[in-house]
Amino acid sequence: MEIKDLSLYTTINSRTEKTVTAEINGNMATAPSGASAGSHEASAFVPEKIEDIENELKELFVGKDMSQLEFDQALREYDGSEKLDKIGSVGIALSLAYKQASGFEKSNKFPYPIGNAVGGGEHGGNTAIQEFLVLPVEAKTFKEAVEINSKIYREFKERYASKILGMNDEGALVTRMDDEETLEKLCKVADKHGARVGLDVAANEIWDEEKEKYVYKAMGMELSPKQQLKFMEKIIDEYNLVYVEDPFHEDDYEMHKKLTIETGDLIVGDDLFVTNKKRLQTGIEEGSCNSLIVKPNQVGLVTDTYETVEKAKKNDYIPVISHRSGETCDTSISSMALEKEIPIIKAGIADIRIAKLNKLLLEWDKMERNNLKPEMAELGL
Ligand code: 2PG
Ligand code: MG
Predict the structure, then answer these.
(1) Fewer CB within 10 A of the terminal residue: the chain, N end or C end?
(2) Does ligand 1 lie within 6 Å of residue 37's CB atom?
């Protein structure tokens, strides 16, 4: 594709923090940002003097005809570091804007939306566990899947109104309940609607390096890695959990492996892999996890993201494409899910996150109208 025009803008995300929007040939993309970011992630800062970078990049790219791979390689060369330390969020904003401009392929396989119903941890809330998620495993259409998640969210909100304090960074409900009470109550509501419950423990954030313990404040509980393993096994069993993300801290391949062997569920690496193919390779060799979170801004560029998705698929790891807690109305991850037949998308239930769900609702509807027979991806659960 020929790059006729390229611009960078400073905009804001759902946490009202500064972010970067890039525009290529009239197509825009905006960088998201994480709160529970892993230390192995690509740099995500917003450069103070965006005009300087914009001018240099215009010189470098405008008038050139290049592929996504060549564009991403040139961006990386311009930056000169592995973690994009010079350009930060400009990297993913531009790489996604190039992708938006060159277009997405569309398969007819739609991802299941896994949605954050109740939250805590770094995103705000009483629980140590960051996300109490629902996965509408029995849904036959994307519309039905979104409806099930919405119903669970609304019913939980009404039923436990006296214990609900508001919404957090991801639009998830914040309550007075502790971790186990939340689990128990959410499972009841989810069961009724044919969905299963999952967790993003985001254990990195509750890991106390000095004590070598996972700290659950609301429950007054501190667990060694071995006790954490037992606790995870216990709740997986008791609540029939379908999905557990980041049950241990970001460098503990060994414990992730133990939990993967001992349960048949989705054990998902987020901070562990940070969408990085080298870290995923270590996981594959060790047998840690059987699924991974895919966040384009964690690794920095679209090409890297897709390489990691390919590697995951080849090695039977289930990719779960995901939003960040600091979001905008950008719908790139929805299009990426359709293009790469990624079977699960983690994009919230309420607030600004609906932009990503609405994009997929519209795509499903359009395909149906054109008799292209959209269907839900194979979950294999
Ligand atoms: C996560 C994400 C998104 P953050 O941990 O999976 O839910 O949170 O963007 O804050 O890292
Ligand atoms: Mg996570």
Answers:
(1) C
(2) yes
- Average pLDDT of the chain is 97
* Residue 246 φ/ψ, nearest 5 degrees: 45, 60
Q: Which residues pair with 8 in a beta bridge?
A: 22
What tens digit of pLDDT does each residue of 79-127 get? Answer: 999 999 999 999 999 999 999 999 999 999 999 999 999 999 999 999 9
Ligand 1 centroid from CA 95, angstroms: 21
| Every domain of the chain and the residues it spans | 6-102, 109-376
Report whether CATH 3.50.30.30 matches the domain 109-376. no
Those residues whose C-beta lies under 8 Å from the C-beta of residue 235, and which sit 6 or more positions away, are 180, 183, 199, 241
Token code pair at residue 36? 């529970």
Which tens digit of pLDDT belongs to each residue from 212-232? 999 999 999 999 999 999 999
Centre of ligand 2 from the C-alpha of residue 172, in Å? 14
6-102 CATH fold: Enolase-like; domain 1 (3.30.390)
